[in-house]
TrEMBL record:
It comes from Plakobranchus ocellatus. It comes from the Eukaryota. InterPro entries: Schlafen (IPR029684), Schlafen_AlbA_2_dom (IPR007421), Schlafen_AlbA_2_dom_sf (IPR038461). Pfam families: SLFN_AlbA_2 (PF04326). Residues 49-114 form the Schlafen AlbA-2 domain. This is Schlafen protein.
Length: 237
């Protein structure tokens, strides 16, 4: 499996970097070595809903985002998980309040700290890309994007601890329900979680790799090691 660095750069450049998506649009690429689509935002195994443990059908069961991140880390090439995009490339987005977005970021830091060895913050990035309704005018889109950056910031609330490592509702999810019930429009997003390709020249990576400074191999929060080959994962431990 010889991939040159140029090949990686070229393929990674497929990353969208768009300001927003439109609901039900097709992603401009398919799942491959660098891109994984998820219809949910269950980052870790312990956030998966209870029904996923009960199901008998392997294909039908929901899998955590973590396995894919582990695979992207262990190839050394990096990659991006898009939460809010279905397997058939359709963008649906996930409704997220400001507090729920904080929750996702906290969960991500928590998850990466539980890997073995832990993954430092400079190796990944979380980006929330708004999903706007179809059939909107340019002005309406601008208005929606402005509303998104204003948020609903309550400084006090943003300091409240989120409940992590469980499929149960956190206070931020209950707060979101109240907002929907009150008719407040909550923006939908695609959560783009990117693992940067391993760069052995990055001073932040010094000491993390092996003696040749090749990328470290990580086990996920469940003690499992995944690699990615094309659009598929395989587990080696
Ligand atoms: Zn929360």
């Amino acid at each position: 499996m010889a991939h040159s660095l140029d090949f990686c750069r070229e393929t990674l450049s497929k990353q969208t970097n768009v300001k927003y998506y439109t609901k039900y649009q097709k992603m401009p690429f398919e799942e491959d070595l660098f891109h994984e689509f998820k219809g949910h935002k269950n980052l870790s195994v312990d956030q998966l809903p209870k029904w996923t443990q009960a199901t008998k059908w392997e294909r039908a069961s929901r899998k955590s985002v973590s396995r894919n991140l582990c695979g992207f880390l262990n190839t050394g090439f990096g990659g991006t998980v898009y939460c809010g995009v279905l397997d058939d490339n359709n963008v649906i987005g996930l409704k997220l309040t400001l507090y729920q977005r904080d929750h996702v970021i906290k969960s991500m830091h928590d998850l990466m700290s539980r890997y073995s060895p832990p993954v430092s913050k400079h190796r990944y990035k979380v980006r929330f890309v708004p999903v706007l309704p179809r059939d909107t005018t340019e002005e309406e889109r601008e208005e929606l994007l402005k509303a998104d950056t204003r948020g609903l910031a309550g400084v006090g609330e943003r300091k409240t601890e989120h409940v992590l490592r469980t499929p149960d509702y956190c206070w931020c999810d209950k707060d979101a329900k109240v907002q929907y019930a009150n008719g407040i429009i909550v923006t939908s997003y695609v959560i783009e979680i990117s693992i940067n390709p391993w760069n052995h020249d990055d001073p932040c990576n010094k000491g993390f790799g092996d003696f040749l400074n090749l990328h470290p191999i990580h086990a996920d929060e469940d003690g499992k090691i995944y690699f990615r080959r094309q659009a598929r994962l395989f587990q080696v431990q």
